[in-house]
Each structure stands twice: as structure tokens, then as C-alpha cells.
């Protein structure tokens, strides 16, 4: 009996989702991520502090940007999205000369995620711009950091083994957001969203990342390597 109930519930959810998707528009968006990531920024700053001779310091910015795609759309008073997939990317370099010659240190950050659904309510209207707020109640994000050296034009493998130097972790999160939409009848709509991501506190431990970046001085880094995942973000979505 329980199995039949689960099957019927699953089929009902699939039917509802398929109907919503059939009523939805296809939407593409540009997405950015900024703020937060305090421990990451402090590790990058520590890298620069221990190398005052660098010709170019590594950036301590946590800014990442990328794209997303999914279904959904806005109406004059509300809107929603379904099944959105996205990727965000960041990359910074430090350049200098050491005993081995010219080198470039590269640090890359990556975020991939899925947001099953998102809803917003826009009761205010000012010169055809609808204004309101909303929530994305449950998303899944995959976060990755890796770093490597290039010396005299050749890539050098990290000091540590790959599983140790490449940080990878996933977590669930919630987005709260402010929304501004412009709706052109049933032809298309434009949606600007400013969001704040709330995730588990201090989910990521960047100890290994610090150890790879600062192999000699990482033991004297007297700050927390645990990193909160909370951050601000913005996305611009076009649906048609």
C-alpha cells in the first residue's frame, strides 16, 4: 500500500511539473556572485603578504560570474522558475620570479548548481517596472577551488596530491531576493534579481587550499580556515 502511494505521489508530481514546464517560457540568465567567502579572501591576502616581491599580486576578490538556463517567467504580479541549472567561474593570477625562474600561480573557483523552483511576488508597479520580493527555498550547489603553478611556460603539478589540493564540496542553500520585472504581454519578460544566499554555517574548510598556496608559512596562518557559504548575488534573466 505504501509503495502504491509513493508511486502515485511521484507520478502526480511528475505530471504537475510537466504541466508547469509546458506553460512556462524558456529563460536564459547572467548570474554573478560577490561578497562573503571571508576565509578565502584572507588566505589570498596571506599569500600576497608573504611574497612582497611579486610583480602581480593574486586577487583576493570572491567575485564569480556565469550563466544559467531553465524554464519559467514573470507576470505583472508574480513569477516563477523551474529546473534552473547554472555555473559561475572565477580565476586570478599572481606573477613573479623565484629561484626557479618566472612563474604564474593560478587559483580557480567554480560553482555549479541547480535550483528546482523559485517564486516571487511583485505587487508594486512603477512606470511598467514591477517590484517585489521572493524566495528560492531549496537549491543544491557544488563548490570547487583548485590551484596550480606555471614555471617557465610549463605547468607544474601541485605539491600535494590532487584530492588534497583540489577542494570540492556540495551543500544545500536558500535564496532570499528582491525582484524587478518588465513584462511585454506574452512575448517576453526581463527579470532583475538581487539575492542573498543562506547556507550551512562554516561548511567549507580551506585548510588544504592554504597548505598548497603557502607550503612554508601555512602553519603561522592564525585565522580560521572554515568558510561560511553565505554571499550576495545578482542575476538578469530574459524569458520568451
Task: Write up what this structure looks like.
The chain is α+β, with helices and mostly antiparallel strands and 240 residues long. The chain has helices at residues 2-23, 38-49, 162-165, 207-213; strands spanning 25-34, 64-74, 78-98, 101-126, 129-151, 154-156, 167-184, 188-198, 204-205, 226-227, 231-239. The strands form two sheets. Strands 1-2-3-4-5-7-8-11 form an eight-stranded antiparallel beta barrel. Strand 5 (129-151) and strand 6 form a beta hairpin. The longest helix has 22 residues, at 2-23. It is elongated, with a radius of gyration of 22 Å.
What labels describe this entry?
240 residues, alpha+beta, 8-stranded antiparallel beta barrel, two-stranded antiparallel sheet, 4 helices, 19% helix
Q: How would you state the average pLDDT, rounded?
A: 82
Strand content bin: over 45%
One letter per element, helices H and strands E, the order comes to HEHEEEEEHEEEHEE
Oligomer: single chain
β-strand number: 11
Q: Strand pairing plus helix content: what structural class? A: alpha+beta
Reported for the largest beta sheet, the result is: 8 strands, antiparallel, barrel
Q: Helix count, per DSSP?
A: 4
Summarize the topology:
Blueprint: H1 2-23, E1 25-34, H2 38-49, E2 64-74, E3 78-98, E4 101-126, E5 129-151, E6 154-156, H3 162-165, E7 167-184, E8 188-198, E9 204-205, H4 207-213, E10 226-227, E11 231-239
Quick structural gist:
By secondary structure, the protein is α+β, with helices and mostly antiparallel strands.
Amino acid at each position: 500500500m505504501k509503495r502504491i502511494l509513493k508511486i502515485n505521489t511521484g507520478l502526480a508530481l511528475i505530471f504537475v511539473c510537466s504541466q508547469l514546464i509546458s506553460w512556462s517560457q524558456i529563460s536564459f540568465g547572467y548570474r554573478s556572485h560577490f561578497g562573503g567567502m571571508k576565509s578565502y579572501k584572507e588566505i589570498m591576502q596571506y599569500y600576497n603578504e608573504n611574497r612582497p616581491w611579486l610583480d602581480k599580486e593574486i586577487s583576493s576578490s570572491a567575485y564569480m560570474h556565469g550563466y544559467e538556463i531553465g524554464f519559467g517567467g514573470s507576470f505583472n504580479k508574480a513569477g516563477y522558475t523551474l529546473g534552473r541549472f547554472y555555473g559561475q567561474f572565477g580565476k586570478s593570477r599572481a606573477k613573479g620570479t623565484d629561484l626557479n625562474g618566472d612563474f604564474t600561480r593560478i587559483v580557480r573557483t567554480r560553482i555549479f548548481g541547480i535550483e528546482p523552483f523559485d517564486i516571487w511576488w511583485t505587487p508594486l508597479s512603477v512606470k511598467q517596472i514591477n517590484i517585489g520580493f521572493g524566495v528560492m527555498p531549496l537549491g543544491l550547489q557544488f563548490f570547487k577551488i583548485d590551484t596550480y603553478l606555471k614555471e617557465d611556460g610549463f605547468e607544474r603539478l601541485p605539491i600535494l596530491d590532487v584530492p588534497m589540493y583540489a577542494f570540492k564540496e556540495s551543500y544545500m542553500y536558500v535564496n532570499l531576493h528582491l525582484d524587478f520585472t518588465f513584462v511585454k504581454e506574452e512575448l517576453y519578460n526581463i527579470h532583475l534579481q538581487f539575492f542573498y544566499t543562506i547556507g550551512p554555517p562554516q561548511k567549507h574548510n580551506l585548510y588544504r587550499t592554504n597548505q598548497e598556496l603557502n607550503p612554508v608559512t601555512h602553519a603561522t596562518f592564525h585565522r580560521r580556515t572554515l568558510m561560511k557559504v553565505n554571499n550576495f548575488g545578482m542575476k538578469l534573466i530574459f524569458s520568451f
